[in-house]
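Title: Request for sanity check on Methyltransferase type 11 prediction

Description:
We are preparing a figure and want to confirm that the structure record we downloaded matches what your pipeline produces today. Could someone re-run it with the sequence below and paste the raw structure tokens into this thread? We only need the token string, no images.
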Amino acid sequence: MGDVGETGGQKALWNRAAGRGWVRAQDLLDRMYRPFEELIVEIVGPSAQVLDVGCGPGTTTLAAARRAGPAGRCVGIDIAEPMIAAASARVDEKGGTAVDAEKSAGSAPVRFLLADAASHEFSTAEFDAVISRFGVMFFDDPVDAFTRLRRATREGGRLRFVAWRDPAENPFLTAAEHAAAPLLPALSPRVANAPGPFAFAARDQTRRLLADSGWTDIAIRPIDVPCTLDEEELEQYVTLIGPVGRTLPELGEDTRAKVVDTALAAFDPYRLNDRIRYTAACWQVDASAP
């Protein structure tokens, strides 16, 4: 997942427009965020038991399953019913074997849970690895949530996730809402440190909350990842993802057209040779269960 800016109501939000939009834009987002998928599954070894937090439509879970192999096991968890429904459609109901077209033979069994990782009762020391691609920044109580995840991880097991750095370093992510804000007076402003994509923008704060949750060997390093999408995909991105995309269905036709045109124009600085190019400024966060 990865794109809510409001405080509270995460479950309701992701089970409405946010979750539906993410599913409709799944192919685009998977291509755009492929480098992050490859990064987080690096920690998955053969036969690993893996938990993918905020798994969305399941792409990262399936990638982990390919690395874990047939002796492994992968569980994807998300609060969004539209995403879990899409993810579950990609696996064979008889044994959790993925049937996704991109799924190679010899992968681990996969299971998807419609549940909140912040409150779900996992078995103690159940997983070797906990991963997340932009899916852990939405906890109301991150210390409690990461404590639960740590207890679900075996001794010496690893945590790896990627999260966005400061919004000032990621102008692409907020370009549409900044441009369209004068036309959308009801658009909620982002709240610093609230659950949402930039909740872990402050490295020291993230380090403290992980330490307070019992994780050790904490390493947080900046990564700058080039991302691209096709020119013709930009409108899909703007109209399905983010605060502007969630607001559009509520607007009249004329206002909607004006908002879309205004938002699309805000991406002119990112256009180069019929492609939209930007740099994703993120943190790669690693930790171990003691």
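Thanks, this matches our download. The chain has one domain: 8-168+191-229+281-289.
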